[in-house]
Design brief:
About 30% of the residues lie in helices and about 20% in strands. The chain has about 290 residues and is α+β, with helices and mostly antiparallel strands. Helix 1 packs antiparallel against helix 6. It is elongated and about 65 Å long.
Length: about 290
């Protein structure tokens, strides 16, 4: 039985039996895998602080024949992504990314580019002020990487380019994105073209430069609604992290200026540190 050495992001984990842990990983060489860490709750030598969600680890895996689960033989912590788990807003956005990797990617489908993209995004999230535009762009960029990129710069029905001064343009999930005035269903509402083009630009814009997209909190709220419909129609599930994210992450950068760094989640500031109530959410995400 060959040993597999690969870097991995810990997506979720929970206790199993008396001393084991079941760990879901997104690996650099094998994509998403599930593995049992035998005796992990007793052995600090083999798993020294490594089996926590949203950490980057160097793993040793074994793949037993005729078994759906790999065995995690050992793990070394490479990067804990400080600033994520002790900050509610950043933690919520990072959990959204982890959920996308855990629920939408295929099991054992290698995608090194997606692994490096996700690692880079976590690095940005841990340093950026959390806001809903950041969360929205993480979502749409990840969907694009997974092959679910919405059509935004041209009509998803006829292919006509969406002009910046066009009127009557809509967004229809069943068509896959933007639709021109000629293709839009009569009952479907029109959508500002500048919003669609800003989102298209946002897919290519570095997360740290999102402010130059020119979107305000109302734009972000509308974009969330459009993307939620697109997500539900094409992927067919609800993100479990979304309600919590919308509760604790402010709509825009200036919505809750740094006053929230020491706020509790009950205060609703959206940028507070993880407090005693956060583990309840953490357990829901992990299981």
């Amino acid at each position: 039985m060959a040993e597999i050495r690969t870097r991995a992001l810990v997506l979720r984990c929970y206790d199993q039996r008396e001393s084991d842990r079941l760990v879901h990983l997104y690996t650099e060489t094998h994509g998403r895998v599930a593995a049992v860490a035998k005796g992990a709750r007793r052995s600090r030598r083999r798993f020294p602080g490594t089996l926590e969600i949203l950490t980057l680890v160097d793993t040793r895996l074994a793949d037993p024949p005729r078994s759906a689960l790999m065995r995690l033989e050992g793990a070394k912590l490479l990067k804990p992504f400080e600033g994520l788990v002790n900050h509610l807003g950043r933690y919520a956005i990072a959990c959204q990314l982890a959920e996308l990797l855990d629920r939408i990617t295929g099991e054992r489908e290698a995608n090194p580019e997606l692994f490096h993209f996700a690692s880079g995004v976590l690095d940005v999230i841990r340093l950026e002020p959390p806001d809903r535009l950041l969360a929205l762009l993480v979502l749409i960029k990840t969907l694009a990487r997974l092959g679910y990129r919405p059509q935004l710069a041209s009509c998803a029905s006829c292919g006509r380019t969406v002009a910046a001064d066009a009127r009557g343009t809509g967004f229809e999930a069943r068509h896959g994105g933007a639709v021109c005035a000629a293709c839009r269903e009569p009952e479907a509402p029109a959508v500002p073209v500048r919003l669609l083009l800003a989102l298209e630009s946002g897919i290519r814009t570095p997360l740290r430069e999102r402010g130059r997209l020119g979107l305000d909190s109302r734009d972000v709220a509308l974009a969330e609604l459009l993307l939620e419909r697109f997500f539900r129609y094409h992927i067919g599930l609800e993100l479990r992290t979304m309600p919590f994210l919308r509760q604790v992450v402010p709509p825009w950068l200036d919505a809750a200026p740094h006053r929230g760094e020491n706020a509790s989640p009950e205060g609703g500031a959206g940028t507070g540190v993880v407090s005693a109530s956060a583990p309840d959410f953490r357990s829901r995400v992990q299981t």
